[in-house]
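Quick one - inputs below.
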Amino acid sequence: MTAELNIQDYIAVQQLYADYGLTLDRGDFDHWPDFFTDDCRYLVQPRDNHDRGLPLATIMLTSKGMLLDRVYGIKETLFHDPYYQRHVIGAPVIREREADTWRCEASYAVFRTKRDQLSTVFNVGRSLDTLQRTADGWRFASRLCVYDSEMVPNSIIYPV
Amino acid sequence: MTARQRICYALLMNAPTPSLNWEAGDTSRIPFAVYTDATLHAKEMQRFFYENHWCYVGLEAEVPNPGDFKRTKIGERSVVLVRDHDQTLHVVENVCAHRGMQFCRERHGHIKEFVCPYHQWSYTLKGDLQGVPMRRGVRQDGKVNGGMPADFALADHSLNKLRVACRGGVVFATFDHDMPSLEDYMGPTILGYFDRVFNGRQLTLLGYNRQRIPGNWKLMQENIKDPYHPGLLHTWFVTFGLWRADNKAELRMDAHGRHAAMISTRGNAGKAGEVAQVSSFKQSMTLHDASFLDIVPEPWWGGPTAVMTTLFPSLVIQQQVNSVSTRHIQPDGHDAFDFIWTHFGFADDTPEMTERRLRQSNLFGPAGFVSADDGEVIEFSQQGFEQKPRHRALVEMGGRDTAETDHMVSEACIRAMYAYWRQVMERP
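Output:
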């Protein structure tokens, strides 16, 4: 840790996490890539692979362009049952902190509600994130969602 | 499946199955009851998974060292693949010979011997019983209390040992010790496509995806025997030029019609939109980041850019450009199965090729651009079957026969699979 923690930065990062979840839960996928830097990484990986050092991820995107392509897939090409999702994101812990780069870790739970069905626990895990201060505020330079819910209930369509 | 359901299925194993109405006489109309009837399901488990068929258990690369094990399933039965101290591979049923406990709880790991925690019965990695605590009783006040009867012999109580076959780094097992070799089981045509991927090179394990699909297990076999759907359901494939109905293609099968290979080669003849007939098709759409489709042809492909092989009943072997995986079908009742993807590469892959295989895996698996929708349609097909169990599906694309073809506009491999299914299931 370097300089004194600026509480304004901590609030901004908290807001980023909260806004991220709410944006996805509104189904506003067009704005999902806005939370990331241009050369970002976004991975959704089963815990088993992560713990064993196996590199395969269920979703592995290595640029903002790939996030935009995923959004196109969600909206235009992937046939799927429509569903709502609801994120509950725990307070991020700051693991490492430099002036403009923070490494954070947070637990998350995503609930899924399909039309005419009861809400179910869909995907739970933690995110290992690198946050970058940019001219437009804090952004994810890297977001790795390591999920405990290794037996996926059929499919994962929307981002977590 | 709940414990109660398991008991019901056990009872159903010998129950009379319903007579099925094959409306057309042949297999071009498939009664929905094959997907919805629990007695048929119990009989399928016995006749396809527990006798006369080789089932997939894993890759040798998953258990590289002596003592390494992997817990997996054949049908609905839990088994353990293990490498013994002498390097030989063994598969045992995960049921203790004493009181029947599923003793192996971790999904993978490293052990010296099998020990059932309940009463500490221990087994060698070959499955032989080697230790029974208090076997000769416990001495107390000059007298021996308890102990196993004098005629108790360790040799009579090994774990249930399966027959094992390995080829090209892939491990299969069977409960049936009398069946033909793995090679005869595949037949020469399918063996050729198997060897194309698994030609003796060392495999490297990239990782797993797991999904539970709430549909009958046969629907996944059918999905990979059905070249009619990819260009229609998988809009992504068509949009980005990876699949076209006018691609050079073949459907090949084994002599029984149970295994199949869909072989295709990318082409660019004609306007894609004319062939696709997909309402949302956009000719002008391009990827923001082309690295999803950074395809580098590999010499071992020998021409085709994609070969999807189904080994009945338990396995799909995927080669879609640079992405290769095994997909393991593990039924769980008549209306659900677990689908386990094992992505791999080869020991001589460059770091760039490994990265490429990983990036292309975005197309596959439970979130894949061209696989997530397969799981979805299987779920909704099952819902339709359950709603109208006396109805039937129509499988007439390309005719009503079961012959191999040199094009993709055919459901012949599904018809052939059900011709085989009927032979096995309708036998007394």
